[in-house]
Amino acid sequence: MKILTWNCNGALRNKLDDIIALNADINVIQECENPAKIKQSAYTEWAENYLWIGDSKNKGIGIFAKKNINLKQLEWSDNYKDHKVKHFLACRINDDFDIIAVWNHSNNSPTFAYIGQFWKYLQINKSNLKKCIILGDFNSNAIWDKWDRWWNHSDVVGELKHIGIESLYHKFFNEIQGNERLPTFFLHRKLEKPYHIDYVFGSAEFTTTLKYLEIGKIDSWLTKSDHLPITCEFEI
Fold first, then answer.
1. First to last CA, the chain
2. Sheet of 50-56: strands edge to edge?
């Protein structure tokens, strides 16, 4: 099974050929439009099997699968002490494993923006995380850890590892958090501003069955988005 994550930087309907060429079984796309509200036949036909959430019809997070794959949205909580965190979309795949699609948001929080949003989501739903893949745009890296904060990127990675969930990129390339050779994002699409902020985390079922992991080539993708896609293939 091939699974992809990509922040498309909007207007996914105009970038379908690029996604289709990668032939993933499941595509997790951030900043995409709601297929139910966009009147473009090519997009709605491609998105015949999907789940989507977002603040507006033009920008949200979607899980798009081939038609032979069963998607079931999971009603996991996204309320932490009466504050709604975003954006997180959990679903069951073929009644076998779970995918948690992530697009970490600032959410107008002065303290718990981006990785803080995921830290809160993790506290609410940690007991649900069994056989799963957590992937998407985390807007985070260990280089931005702060000494007096307990929801740092490294703290979140440590919490996930404690329950048997690890970053597939770091396992595959034998790299450490904060020292990634391959970026996934270029601020303002400038080559001199590279960062690694997109991730695929997996439980043991996926760290042991990973066949390959690939980040899209800069020359091919930077004209389409400020993010590069991550594609993983598993022996499932």
1. 6
2. 50-56, 59-65, 26-32, 2-7, 230-234, 210-215
Q: Note whether 102 and 86 are within 8 A (CB).
A: no
* pLDDT attached to residue 39: 85
Q: Mean pLDDT across the stretch 149-154?
A: 94
C-alpha distance from residue 115 to each of 52, 88, 150, 151, 176 (Å): 21, 12, 11, 7, 18
Angle between helices 153-162 and 115-125 (to 10 degrees): 20
Q: Report all structural domains of the chain as residue ranges with CATH numbers, in order of start.
A: 2-234 (3.60.10.10)
Residue 49 has a CB neighbour count (10 Å cut-off) of 15
Q: Scanning the structure block, which residue is given the tokens 């979607």?
A: 62
Q: What is the pLDDT of residues 104-116, one digit of tens each?
A: 999 999 899 999 9
**Whole-structure pTM value:** 0.97
